[in-house]
Amino acid sequence: MLEVLILSFLVTFIYTPYGYLITNGSNIRSFSLQLIFAVIILSFLALFINFFSPLNKIINSVILILPLFIILKYKNIYFNKKFFIFCFYSTLIIFLLITSSNVYRPDAGLYHLPFISILNQEKIIIGISNLHFRFGHISVLQYTSAIFNNIVFTENGIVFPSALLASSVILNFLSNFNKCLKDQKF
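RESULT FIELD:
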């Protein structure tokens, strides 16, 4: 349980700066938007990389290191109280979602896990749906799950993207709701 809590914090802290490329700011709403955009950027980055190379642990770990440069460049944004409050709330939501979820049942062994395994072992295989029809309809979120299989998160990282996206949407909704209450815009 402690491992899931620590990894939930790390996934929020490390991957949020990818969204800084699209939006910036220093409140919970802007951090939640950064996290939403980070998941989108990571999804399409994984898709693009997979055209040329499999999403193995080495490549995925390099992608894990890239946001650290953004964090170091913008220390005043990512080492302040508001960002750590955002990380705390996001970590709490991710932890609750992962520990109480059964998201990869019952069809994980048929659809999700085999395709994520193919993404981690091979570059894009043209005509893979001819191999079996279940590989013909996939989600771009599976590319994000494949990219979370790195040295830090290992194979367990594939469960984090869904929870990460859900927590960022929940926090964005709650921060917008709170803003409307403060401004008395009903």
